[in-house]
Request: fold
Amino acid sequence: MPYNTSLEKSEIRIINSFLPSSAKWSVYADTVHKRRGCMPSPLSFTKGMIFTAYYTSIAQQAVIAGQNVIFTESPIPCNKGLVIHRQDSGLFTLRGPGCACNQCFARYLVQFQGNLAVADGGTPATGATVAIALNGEPLASSIATVTPAAVVTDINHVSTFAYVDVPRGCCATVTVEAITQGINVTNAAIAFTRVA
Reply:
């Protein structure tokens, strides 16, 4: 079905008047795709586009060293298939651009925060440590450590982040792992933002 080009231009002017300058390119690009008779792939990324998925786990959970923090709630799930997560799991699969896309990789900003305490039987001096892990390997730059004064009762807040690049046509697995010893985690939250 042909599109009314003059109507589209007026729609762009109206929409752009309400958008920040960084988002105007997305509206234009989507309109150009429509005019050509195709829609952009859900795995394509245009300038100014921001994508976020957000997962939480409020209740306290015990995580032994080397295991993942489990996320039980999905307040803002990904409905585009870019971040894949099974409820009550600690695994997140990030997808790269589709093979038909001209992008070489997709870049995600991964942010984690939560309250940590050393689990019963642990050593406070060793600290409670978590890190964002990529394909099972903790990223050293994302390690967050607190050294509480006591076991279980002394709870401290940590936050950390990492950038993850996923090549075209590939996937990457992201987790949050306990590193040095068993810990108790409460109010855990993780967010994924597609930035490129």
In short: The longest helix spans residues 21-35. Residues 1-42 have pLDDT under 50 and may be disordered. The radius of gyration is 21 Å.
